[in-house]
Amino acid sequence: MTPTIRNQLVNPPTRFASFRDPTLYGHIFLHDPVVIESEDPDPCWRWMRPRGGMDFIEDFVRPGAEDGVPLDLEHNFPRTVISDRIAPENIHRLIAKIQHCRGLA
After folding, report:
1. Cα–Cα distance between 89 and 16 in angstroms, integer?
2. Is 37 helix (H, G, I), strand (E, B) or coil?
3. Peptide bond into 63 cis (omega under 30)
4. What pTM was estimated for this model as a whole?
5. pLDDT tens-digit map of 2-19
6. How far apart are CA 53 and CA 36, in angstroms?
7. SS3 at position 39
8. How far is CA 53 from CA 50, 78, 100, 103, 105, in A?
9. Helices vs. strands in the chain: H and E counts, helices first
């Protein structure tokens, strides 16, 4: 069950150091590829690459192309985990919700 992260959650107000936490968790502990959903991945890739954001990202996909647990700004697909940002104050809640949604599949 692939965790997918909407590309808007890569940019501020997301704290980039916190962005790496769910990608690391998905890659290491869930043993699932983590992907970024984006219509245009080039600007996102250029922002993430020099900051080490691609370390645990498998690929970029179009929104809705992967069957998984989307982390998004709004509820667009089943099992969506909704957040307006990824930050130290909500990272544990987001990871717990991703785990919960994986169990529903």
Report:
1. 13
2. strand
3. no
4. 0.90
5. 899 999 999 889 998 899
6. 11
7. coil
8. 8, 26, 25, 27, 28
9. 3, 5
